[in-house]
Specification:
This protein is mainly α and 287 residues long. It is built from 9 helices and no strands. It is rod-shaped, with a radius of gyration of 61 Å.
Length: 287
């Protein structure tokens, strides 16, 4: 057991030395595992030597026991043959081998017990190294997570500086201003570089299509008011014998509306158009 106590102390001293000099924890942990495995290999060799010694003692014990039995058989043979002198010599040799066997057996039993203890300690050391290997992976994962957290913290600390955001906002404003200038330049180039005659015809085509639409709406309005398409309200009153209601205002309104051409209506300013409608509404309001 003293050997493994010394081995454990050596491993601890190596680990402490590596930790004190550690720069890269992952590399240091890997190196510690390598050193542990080297120490385990040395311990295996020591245990193997102890086992070999134990087996050697066992072989010597077996030989002494065999020799004692052989000399005992020889003494019995000498007694049968009437050779007591030879029987005495055989018994002396048998006694010597038996005594040596007894001493060797005691030593072998102690060595066997020590060997079993060494085997148990070796298994424990191997289990601890395997556990250390598993913990190494966990420690490396924790170390990488801690490094990632530190880098994130450093990045966030750097971003907390308002100057970085101000610079970003200035750059964004500069880009947007450049975009506005580019759009304005394109609009000016299009306005100055286009064919005015072609643009006039485009406006005329747009006005003509719009005029047709206005004409349809005017016709629909007249139909709704009963001024086109069938008997008017005035005709219905004459057939009934009633005096017709004064219709001067609507007739004047219709005449004035018909006199205003579609192109002129499109060209009349809004203020002037409102003024004209005020004039039309004047007589009706007075009546």
């Amino acid at each position: 057991m003293g050997m493994f106590t010394k081995l454990s102390t050596l491993i601890k001293s190596n680990i402490n030395d590596l930790i004190s000099r550690a720069e890269d924890p992952e590399k240091m942990l890997n190196q510690i595992i390598i050193d542990m495995r080297d120490q385990l290999a040395k311990a295996k060799r020591e245990v193997a030597a102890a086992i070999a010694d134990e087996r050697k003692l066992k072989a010597q014990l077996d030989d002494e026991v065999k020799q004692a039995r052989d000399w005992e058989h020889r003494a019995m043979l000498a007694v049968k043959e009437g050779r007591d002198d030879l029987a005495k010599q055989a018994l002396i040799r048998q006694q010597e081998h038996a005594e040596r066997a007894q001493v060797i057996q005691q030593t072998w039993q102690e060595q066997a017990a020590e060997t079993e203890n060494l085997k148990g300690s070796l298994r424990q050391l191997n289990d601890k190294i395997e556990e250390a290997k598993r913990k190494r992976n966990l420690l490396i994962a924790k170390q990488k997570r801690a490094q990632a957290q530190r880098r994130i913290h450093e990045t966030m600390s750097g971003l907390s500086d308002s100057s970085a955001f101000e610079a970003f906002n200035r750059m964004a404003e500069k880009i947007e201003e450049e975009e506005r200038r580019s759009i304005a330049h394109a609009e000016v180039s299009q306005a100055l570089g286009g064919d005015s005659l072609e643009q006039d015809f485009v406006r005329l085509e747009a006005g003509s299509s719009g005029g047709a639409d206005v004409e349809d709406k005017l016709l629909a309005l007249k139909s709704q008011m009963g001024l086109v398409g069938g008997a008017t309200e005035e005709t219905k009153q004459l057939e009934a014998g009633d005096a017709p209601a004064p219709a001067a205002a609507p007739v004047v309104q219709e005449a004035q509306v018909e006199e205003v051409s579609e192109a002129e209506a499109a060209a009349i300013p809004e203020a002037q158009l409102i003024s004209e409608f005020d004039k039309l509404e004047g007589p009706s309001a007075e009546s």
